[in-house]
Specification:
Length: 99
């Protein structure tokens, strides 16, 4: 993104990108510390299994239903008539559930 596009965001991210880098480093340190002690190693294993389960659910439930990128017309809407604001409110439920 250019500096102009970043400044035009409706929800700017504070401390970009240093806050996100610090968060990743912190989480990696916590995971490493969990692996050192025998009594906390189970939390590391359960956490990894939980994240894998969430990734599978995301792929099966959300990603399949998410529409692909659509060009934005001059009026600020897509060809389907909606605004490109990333609204995913209609994505509840399984991928092929009736509405």
């Amino acid at each position: 993104m250019s500096a102009q596009e970043t400044a035009a965001l409706r929800f700017p991210v504070p401390f970009w990108p240093y806050g996100q880098i610090a968060a990743v480093v912190f989480m990696a340190a916590v995971m490493e510390l969990l692996g050192f002690q025998e009594s906390t190693r189970i939390a590391l294993v359960v956490g990894v299994v939980w994240l894998a389960l969430l990734a599978v659910v995301h792929v099966l439930w959300v990603r399949r239903r998410r529409p692909g990128p659509q060009p934005v017309l001059a009026g600020g809407t897509t060809a389907m008539g909606n605004t490109p604001d990333g609204d995913l409110a209609g994505l509840e439920g399984p991928a092929h559930a009736p509405r």
